[in-house]
Amino acid sequence: MASCCCWQKKPCPIIATFVSFLLIPILVSSSASATGGGGNGSTTAQVLLRSGEEGLRFQRMKAQLARVREASVKTIQSPDGDVIDCVPSHLQPAFDHPKLRGQKPADEPEARPGNGDAEPMEGDDEALPQTWRSSGEWCPEGTIPVRRTTEGDLLRASSVGRFGMKPQTQSAAVRRDSTSNGHEHAVGYVTGGQFYGAKASLNVWPAQVSSPAEFSLSQIWVISGSFGNDLNTIEAGWQVSPELYGDNSPRFFTYWTNDAYQETGCYNLHCAGFVQTNSRVAIGAAISPVSAYGGHQFDITLLIWKDPKQGHWWLQLGPSGALVGYWPSSLFTHLGSRGRGGADMVQFGGEAVNTRPSGSHTPTQMGSGRFPGEGYGRAAYFRNVQVVDWDNNLIPAAGLRLLADHPGCYDIAGGQGGEWGSYFYYGGPGRNVRCP
User: Fold this and answer.
1) Model pTM score
2) DSSP state of 398
3) Region 382-398: what's the mean pLDDT?
4) Which is the catalytic residue, given 184, 214, 243, 351?
5) 151 given a catalytic annotation
6) How far apart are CA 354 and CA 344, in angstroms?
7) Among 217, 233, 328, 396, which one is least packed by beta carbons within 10 Å?
8) 235 in catalytic set
């Protein structure tokens, strides 16, 4: 559950395939800013779209957005400018996937890790406080809230064809070899076994991102496969991404891929795949309130685990068990098999993109923008870091290794004991005297 804690205690340049296209300017009007800075009022965005495949993709995506709006049974205007469409669950984007067509949301798992006999609390809305619900409006039962994607969102993307996707070189970051691709990390990770899920509580911060081409996030990664073409990952957490959302608000997100970020997978509900079952959590919507430096700390608890019976990977918010939805087993290869098919690595921590403007390091923040040594109330943290074993039990993440790609820019330091179990502080300001 999101709480006021009182203890004392990705885009780098995409390698383009050069194809000869005749470029034709197309003027697109949008009600949202196309510059990635947020902004108020209407603007007219001009973008040079390729007349070939890029232009066709743009038109297909516009048609997909229109279908979501048409399916909506209720529209909610969020105070921060977001528009939330309440879409019948069986008409959500997930079921456009070829492997999911004609299906309906799966039944909830019969048992959950570590608390299979416990009854989840109903209506745990504060498991993830979000701005769009502050008006007191909700989506009806039987629907899911979908944050509306606008043409302005598409125009901000560096590539319409890869809108909502991470760059292909992201696989190097998971491999812990990201010194040259602009993605920098401070993470704790476990390897050397089979893992069937992961859980942790992490506090949420309004990290400052200096360029629309950069982002900052804090998340859990569940990983399996090789680092060539068949890497499977499941990811969830919070992120600040001006290019994706048009502002600097920390937002709840999900992600997946089954081919090392090449052609499959996406953030949130931007493509068919993740099946949402919760009517009161909007994936991609802003989280509010957030942590304040030297003040109240607000954190969220995330649990990702594999249902032993159906093989789906479920996402739960809060210790009381508010289910958000699941990644169907059919989406994956290594992570998709039923029974013993688990992950071979789990990661927890932060990631920031450094585009190195003018040759200097970006001042984009990771976490709170403060180094781990500042401790509670000032630095970002993960606490109660756990994994799920073969018998569907939550256990401490034994052998958790800590690694910072560039400790002078973003660092990490951990410990163990007390109410926090296995924990670590992480993050940093980016450019500073130790990181010129």
Assistant:
1) 0.85
2) T
3) 96
4) 351
5) no
6) 28
7) 396
8) yes
